[in-house]
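Q: For a teaching handout, I want to show students what a protein-ligand complex looks like in token form. Below are the inputs, and the small molecule is magnesium ion. Please produce the holo structure.
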Amino acid sequence: MAFRTLDDLDVRGKRVLVREDLNVPLKNGAIADYTRVDAALPTLRWLHERGARTIVMSHLGRPDGHPNPAYTLEPVARALSERLGVPVAFARDCVGEPAESAAAALADGGVLLLENVRFHAGEERNDPAFAAQLARLGDLYVNDAFGTAHRAHASTEGVAHLLPSAAGRCMEAELSALGRLTADPRKPYVCAIGGAKVKDKIGVFTHLMENVDAFCIGGGMANTFLAAKGVGVGSSLRDDDLEPARRIVALAESKGVALHLPVDAVVAPAFDADDRAHVVPIEAVGNEMILDIGPKTAAAYASAIEGARTIVFNGPMGVYEKPAYQSGTKSVGEAIARATKAGAISVVGGGDAAAAAHALGFAAEMTHVSTGGGATLEFLEGATLPGVAALELQPA
Ligand code: 3PG
Ligand code: MG
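A: Here is the structure, written as tokens, with magnesium ion included.
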């Protein structure tokens, strides 16, 4: 892959339009995890120190093309400012007068964060007119948003064709760390996969199947697979459409890839009834809700992981935010840490996965903690990420 980096740009006094992935998890309006904010700092600090006029854009959540105060980036501007130690201005829109006047007010070394690009329908449609409105704000474009590089959106793809472009530091670090895994990964290769966004990941499952020897499945995703196999999952979170999961099961069987599913679970009568959490065999969920993998499952997953030389952790095994439901994710994380110490390459990918790894204290023991979710998995199966491909199209 050939693309320019910050080192190839002359940025002093220039307006540098930077796409970051500041799609942080929010809890009651507060930032619940700062991994993505911190991942943006090296690029922003470098630009600030060299006298660039930095204009940062990002999405937050999925507001579906309409302004929605629940998804404002304003708290992220404050967080960036604190962690960068530099004032970060905030513009109430990412295009038009509010953005243009805020950008014009920047001094050399100044930093501005624009409001959520997904407040405009043109972003996800990669509308050329919307990309042109964004491009007007900058002289140069830097894509540092590895976590959104799998989306061909106006701020990640369209704008790269309109301005001289380069990869930021986070983008560079991700591509180099993950690149070591896609070229001839060491076997056995195990993927611990979980979280709720199962529908989004069905296609990625299919592609990963080519490389991975075994999947250890947890979280809401596991419930969908269990339901597809006819196991009663009570009131657990799961997808309504079971057909994609059935196809994955059939494909795994035909390829000889192991799909490990829970044999026991931590259940409770309701999400908030943690005091009544208890372990049941997977056939005995009844009307209750599965909230974590059980201890037998955790032991089986740990042993699959400990035999691996390449490990991808994508998504928690349960509702790790609550102590009653975190032991599955903790066991898996500890197994990955042991395997890493013994020489395996381990990658944590996925907003939730990284948040869990930080919260449960095993992030520091991994080879690489990616800022990406879907982007990371797609990269690992060798897909071309539109945000990266667009950087390569630029003439040197
Ligand atoms: C992510 O968190 O996966 C990225 O920020 C991309 O967000 P999206 O999945 O809503 O496109
Ligand atoms: Mg995603």
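A: Two things your students might notice: The chain has a mean pLDDT of 93. Residues 21, 23, 62, 147-148, 151, 351, 373-374 surround 3-phosphoglyceric acid (ligand 1) (CB under 6 Å).
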